Amino acid sequence: MALDNGEILRISIEKQLEKIYDRKEADLKIFCDELCERAIDFRLSEPEGHDFTGNLLNSIAVALYRRGKLVQATFSSSMVPGEIGKKMTTGKFYHWKPDYTGVERTYQPEVQTDEGYGKYDAQSFVVYYQPNPKAIFEIVCAYTVEYASFVEMQRHTTGYLSEVEFIKVNAPKVVK
């Protein structure tokens, strides 16, 4: 069965688009690694930030999806020292000698957690996240511990807002 000119043109365009998407995917993989590194840097550079167990820092995940399928996941837990303990939870009083940052502190948490580990929260998030299957590419950056939004909303020390600004400025450059 011979193809007509329209069909030949459509197939040719689809092949060229796939080549372009492959090149963009390679660029976006690098961008995702940079996003994770920047998220860590933003969190660590917050002057009022503190980290008792290392779980918030270890819970950052950046995932790249292409047409609804996971292409790459970058985890902060592969770039920073591991947690020194499980996530703290409400109803308990904790005394760290020293804490994740090397300081002796006490703390009574304000958010209930599952008392697990931040790196497992990040991995679970990537596995269970439902990307948009119609999007050619989707990048998700998440701070996955239960108290991440509390820390950002109450203390503004996750570095999340700096990360959002970085994405707004740099993402358009990557996809050009």
Q: What features would you highlight for this structure?
A:
single chain; 176 residues; alpha+beta; 3-stranded antiparallel β-sheet; two-stranded antiparallel sheet; 5 helices
Describe this structure in words.
The longest helix has 41 residues. The model has no long low-confidence stretch (mean pLDDT 89). Helix 1 packs antiparallel against helix 5. By secondary structure, the chain is α+β, with helices and mostly antiparallel strands. The protein has one domain. The protein has a three-stranded antiparallel β-sheet, sandwiched between helices. The protein is built from five helices and five strands. The two termini are 39 Å apart.
Short description:
By secondary structure, this protein is an alpha+beta fold. It has five helices and five strands, in the order ααββββαβαα. The chain has one domain.
Q: Which percent band covers the strand fraction?
A: 15-25%
Uncertain runs: none
Number of domains: 1
Major sheet characteristics? 3 strands, antiparallel
Q: What is the alpha-carbon Rg in Å?
A: 20 Å
